[in-house]
Each structure stands twice: as C-alpha cells, then as structure tokens.
Amino acid sequence: MRFLDIQTSEDFAGLEKEWNSFLKHSASHVPFLRHEFMFNWWKTLGGGEWGEGDLHIVIAREGDGELVGIAPLFFTKNRDGDPALMLLGSIEIADYLDLIARPENLSAFIKELIDFLLSPQVPPWKVLDWYNLVESSPTRPILRLFCEERGLAYSEDLLQHCPYIPLPTDWETYLAGIDKKQRHEIRRKMRRLSEYDLSTRWYIVEDGIKLDDEINDFLDLMAKDPRKAKFLTESMWKQMRAVMHSAFREGWLQLCFLEVDGEKAAGYLNFDYKNQIWVYNSGLDPRFYELSPGWVLLGYLLQWSIENGRAAFDFMRGEEEYKYRFGAVDRRVVRLLARR
Questions:
Q1: Is the domain of 193 the same as that of 281?
Q2: What is the CATH number of the domain that holds 18?
Q3: Domain contains 292
Q4: Are residues 147 and 233 in the same domain?
Q5: Res 195: pLDDT
Q6: Please, what sign has the CA dihedral across residues 264, 245, 236, 33?
Q7: Predicted local confidence at residue 64, as pLDDT
Q8: Residue 127 pLDDT
Q9: Residues 93, 50 contacting (CB under 8 angstroms)
Q10: pLDDT of 67-92, one tens digit each?
Q11: Which of 1, 276, 31, 253 is nearest to 112 (CA)?
C-alpha cells in the first residue's frame, strides 16, 4: 500500500471524479464526504471556523494505482490549543465525518495509515482529533485497536444527538406509528393551512436560473433568527452559497419553501442523497408563526419523502423536542482522540 500526502488545493481539486466514485463503495457514505462539499469547506476553512490550517489529505493506493482509502485531514491547532490532525469538515458545519474506504479494506487501511501518520512525512501533531463520526462507524473499534497497539493514548467523547426517522412505505402507516396527540397536531395544522384565506403553496426549487434568488431568500429567512444571524458571517454566507450551488449542480440539493400569499414563510435546506433526506438547516419568518409554517412544511416534506420512496429522514445534529415528536429515534456522533 502506497501513501501520498495531498497538500495543495490544485491536487485536491483534481481528485473529484475518482473521489466521488470511490465514496459510493465506502463503509461510511454521507453527503459531507462528497468531494464538492469538502473542497468548498476547505476553500473557506469551514466558513471561517478555523483561522488557519494546512491541507494533508492522505491517499492510499495499491501497487497498480487502485485507490484503497482516503483520510481527508488538515493540520491545525485544535480547540484545546494542541497541534492536531483533524478531519476536513470539522466541526460545526459537517454533521457526519469519517474516513473513506471499502468495508473489506478499512482495517488494513487504518493500520497502515497510523504508521504513516507517525512517520516524519507528516507534520509533528500531538493529537488525532476526529469529530462527528456516527457512533455505529466501524472506524471506531479499528482505530482504537491500532492506536493502542502503537502506544497512543486513545479516548472517545459522545457528542450531539442525531435523531432520524426510518420511513415506512405509506403516509398513513407513518402517522399511525407516532404519538396520537402529535398525529392530530400534524393533521390539524396541515388542514388549517390548506383552508387558510390567503393562497399557500410549498415547492422544491428546481429552476437553476432562479437558484441565486432562492438561496438569498433562504439565507434571509435563516437570518431572521438572531442566533443564526450571528452564525451567518460573510465567510459563512459564502460557504453556504457554495454548498447549495454544488449540491444543486450534482443533483442532491433539496431546497424548499412554504409560501403564504406569495411570501416565503418557511424554508428547509436538505440534501436528497443516497435514498434519504438529510435536514441541514431551516429558516422561518416570525410574521407567520401562528400558522406553524415550519411544522407544516416538515409534514409536507415527510409525506413527499415517503411517497417518493426515501428510506429515512435524518434530522442530523440537535436534540430539539419536535424531532422526537415527529417520531425520530436517537443516535449520537462521537469524537475520537489519539494522543502521542
């Protein structure tokens, strides 16, 4: 197994086709590991989350050149001030991260990856600090094994809850499976909006010509929440726009709105990827609170997802109560640390 340390944006950009093709067969396959997401993240260092960092994507190949694994890393000082190798996408805007390798190659890849990372060919890190691996990730036990074999101090921290809904094959079955009171609320609020005096509609953005305007409208909705307005710095605005454009171009953006009398009352930024919906962010206009536009739009999206055969509806990080009221089951993401 040969290892190559990718350190330039030009070399990173050149991997796009091979990277995305390889990802389809990876033990971990989530939208945040797509090349376009990671490349956009790197260009802004997570929308300004990191002030500085050096690119160190470790690529492993067999002797014939076949790709075996990708460790998408960068070198920086972590939140504790330690020199660290971290996963691209860390920490705030990529909900799920991991290594990229086929299940049958993952153990061999990690074993040799640790040896490579301990060699003089990479920066003098003190800690591997890897955030946001799903708790079921097969990377966890393998990394622990080989880190401990090489005398590294290994530990794990449980991080945020990540509720998701396994979807049935029809809407009524879904409704029957949630709490009776919640079922009544969903039906009541969707019916109330459908009978509202002013015209209403919901839609998924499909017109690329209007995409910029739709993106701006969505970010404006987000910014009506003071917490999200603080989050949306100029750099983060640029990052979010880039993610939406690249996801639209590659066919996995689900940007949707609920309108009341022609005005956007609520919006969701989702990823329609790998036969499931990944709920990335949302925005609401407080003028329409009495109509519960966020709940209603969420109901429409769940119904659409079921009718279009999606297998799951993933709310990703955050343990807000409404997610569980809509029938979500829990899981968590994990931070993996290995110290020299």
A1: yes
A2: 3.40.630.30
A3: yes
A4: no
A5: 83
A6: positive
A7: 85
A8: 98
A9: no
A10: 999 999 999 999 999 999 999 999 99
A11: 1
| pLDDT score recorded for residue 104 | 97
Region of 339 on the Ramachandran plot (φ > 0 left; ψ -120 to 50 alpha; else beta)? beta
Instruction: Provide the pLDDT for residue 287.
Output: 95
| pLDDT of res. 204 | 98
H or E element at residue 270: strand 263-273
Give first-to-last CA distance, the chain, whole Å: 24
Closest alpha carbon to 254 in 275, 277, 271: 271
Q: What is the pLDDT of residue 198?
A: 84
State how far the Cα of 130 lies from the Cα of 126, in Å rounded to an integer: 13
Q: CA–CA separation, 148 vs 162, rounded Å?
A: 28
Same domain, 149 and 269: no
**DSSP state, 8?**
S
Give how many domains the chain has, as a whole number: 2
Radius of gyration of the chain from Cα atoms? 21
Nearest to 301 by CA among 181, 215, 197, 293: 293
pLDDT, tens digit (0-9, with 9 covering 90-100), for 241-265: 999 999 999 999 999 999 999 999 9
Dist CA 329 CA 249 (whole Å)? 32
- Provide the whole-model pTM: 0.95
Name the residue range of residue 245's domain: 164-314
Residue numbers of the chain with a pLDDT score lower than 50: none
35-48 helix and 16-23 helix, angle to the nearest 10 degrees:
110
C-alpha span between 323 and 306 (Å, rounded): 17
Beta-ladder partners of 158: 334
131 in Cβ contact with 97 (< 8 Å)? yes
Distance between CA atoms of 279 and 213, rounded to whole angstroms? 21
26 falls within a domain = yes
Which residues fall within 8 angstroms of residue 131, CB to CB, at 6 or more apart?
A: 86, 87, 90, 91, 97, 159, 333, 335
